[in-house]
What does this fold into?
Amino acid sequence: MTTTIRETVSPGAVPDGGRIPGFEPHPWLAGPHLQTILARFWPWPRRPLPSTYAEVEAGDGDRLSVLESIPEGWSPGGPSALLIHGLAGCARSPYVVRVGSRLASLGVRVVRMNLRGAGSGFGLARSFYHGGRSEDLRAVAAWIARRAPGSPIALVGFSLGANLALKLAGESAERPVEGLDCVVAANPPLDLDACCWRIQEPRNRIYDRSFLRTLRAEVARLHAAFPDLDLVDVAAARSLLQFDELYTAPLNGFGSAADYYARSSAGPLIPRIEVPGLVIHAEDDPFVPPGPFWSIEFPPSLALEMIPQGGHLGYLSRKPWWGDRRWLDARITAWLVSRWELGATTGTRPLGHDPDRGEAPRRPESHVRQHFQ
It folds into this structure.
């Protein structure tokens, strides 16, 4: 089952007269594993994304790190986008940088957050992010609202970050998020339990082992930085499911991995979402099965585009669209162009030098300073 894309936007904003093309995979990259793996290494046009580093209080003694890019010409009331990375990623993950660069070039104020303890946020938190910490997104959204009063805010999440974005959007029906205007989610694991079982299948164990290896290293690093924390032997974990049973669940107040998945999955909250939004997913995603999407009643304002192929955050297309073959990046951007009626493709150019022409400075001692990509 596949949705039909009928959306068009202003011809001046998107190429091809504003038509949104459906995704057709590159003929050499038709399989889900090729799409998923090669998307990490496929070349992409580098666009400047100078940014300012800042730290945001999480409310429990921990702090979160963010990178904010304010394009030249942005004025109060202009749109802002909060970008949220996935598992084992950070604010510098290529998919986050690419979409952030596109949006900034169109005049959108872009904030790329590091989930708790990730990226440049390591050392700022004594705990680690997980699929249910939507309160951290709420804290950063509130920070944006204070800095940019009246700005419509989009939550743009990828993979685990997409689950968090949808979870917060659902929660906002009862606890409003100031300035929240819309939500965009790419390949969200709406049912974390189903995903953990799917990723353990023999054909998908490469992903399970990769994530597990990264998480073990991050836990070891965290406990080395904070030796007073209770030490948990995660070496015994042989899968993400076992890792969550040994570490994520008990350290975050969940009774078990199953309890963590049930209370953190965004799926049950989808019907409550009131803001407009877009969910993009591929039926052949190796570790986020499509079944839960069809069992959820999506509200009229939240569009679901289920694509037959594309893998997990892959979507390397047969033909270039809007600059390259990365269909997902362009699709997310086009939806926000339509939502906010953004201008021509040239847009505005962020201030600062090209990050490819200089070394990024280290994280500053102060809470705010200039930082590049």
Observations:
- The chain has two domains: 16-191+269-353, 192-264.
- The domain at 16-191+269-353 is CATH 3.40.50.1820 (Rossmann fold).
- The two ends are 38 Å apart (CA to CA).
- The longest strand covers residues 50-57.
